[in-house]
Amino acid sequence: MKNEIIKKIDLRILLLISLLIIFYSIIINYLIKINFFEPLIIGTYYLIQPELISGLIWIVIFSILIFYVGKLKIKDLLLDRKRIKLGLKWTLILWIITNLFSIIYLIITKDELKITDSINVSIGEFIGQLFGNAALEEMLFRGLFFIQFYLLFGQKVNNKFAIILAILVSQVFWSVVHIPNRLLNRQIEHLILELIRLFIYGVILTIIFIKTKNLILLVGAHSLLNVPFNLIEIDFPLPIVVLMLIVIISLFWNILENEEKRSFFNVGLITEKKAQNANTR
Fold it and tell me: 238, 172, 180, 171: which is closest to 207 by C-alpha?
């Protein structure tokens, strides 16, 4: 695959988006805390969750800022029709394998195979992640902030150091944005450890994004990590299975999708300006 030509967004717009993310995090977590969405959740038999409603609304708001005001195109988030199809395909494969693992695990442990009683809740929560919360976070923190910080730092330092700085800054921001959720849910005692866990989690997802360059795959994996959407009741931490699977898939991505193997650390992305300069030489 040839180098991507990625456009930079105005730093003032990036700052505005950053401030709005903090505002969004505080407001949505407060509304969830006071059960603001409860009538809608119950009225739709738990199929519509607050993560879906808030996620969709803010995806529209941030999309206007990114694509209309910021003049970026969808390809600047490393999205195109082919990648969308691949991401959806591998999300489905992840889900199928996770459910097969559950069945095999229960057979081996000789536990009862029982369909979950809360299927409506599981469907609603997964849809809320896939089209709401996870989609919003991946669009912003991997698709926008990581790439834009990488382009920004790439003007000052070499490619490898620019990638490392972009990962650190974008994922520190990602973990910090979760503070309102933890505070409102009284998770103060272990807040620092929780922020470190989120940071490590974000770094892993970003490295997978670097390896696969597929934002939709990240949305699917993020959704399944938050809500495994298991059809079988099982007393096992399925997010661990999902994380292991997505890491394995990313390691063998070039073989699985027959893509040219190339080192992002050595080649990286090139900005629109650099590409134009290269073409005029």
Answer: 171
Distance, in Å, from the CA atom of 221 to the CA atom of 86, rounded to the nearest integer, reads 13
Do 55 and 128 form a contact (C-beta atoms < 8 A)? yes
pLDDT averaged per 10 residues in sequence order, the chain, 281 residues: 75 96 93 92 92 94 97 93 95 96 92 86 94 96 96 89 95 94 80 92 95 95 94 91 95 85 58 42 40
Tokens for 74, please give them.
């969808």
Task: Tally Cβ neighbours within 10 Å of residue 5.
Answer: 16
Tokens, residue 223: 């959704």
DSSP 69: I
φ, ψ dihedrals at 103, nearest 5°: -65, -45
Q: What are phi and psi of 210, to 5 degrees?
A: -60, -40
* Distance, CA of 110 to CA of 193 (rounded, Å): 36
Q: How many CB atoms lie within 10 A of CB 67?
A: 15
Distance, CA of 187 to CA of 215 (rounded, Å): 30
CB 158, CB 137: distance < 8 Å = no
Reduced to 3 states (helix: H, G, I; strand: E, B; else coil), residue 206 is helix
Q: Tell me, what DSSP letter sits at residue 75?
A: G
Alpha helices in 141-214 (DSSP H): 147-153, 159-177, 179-184, 191-212
Q: Computed from CA positions of residues 129, 207, 148, 193, in that sequence, does the dihedral angle turn out positive or negative? A: positive
Long-range contacts of 106-114 (CB under 8 A, 24+ apart): 106/232, 106/234, 111/234, 111/235, 113/232, 114/232, 114/233
Instruction: Retrieve residue 265's tokens.
Output: 């650390």
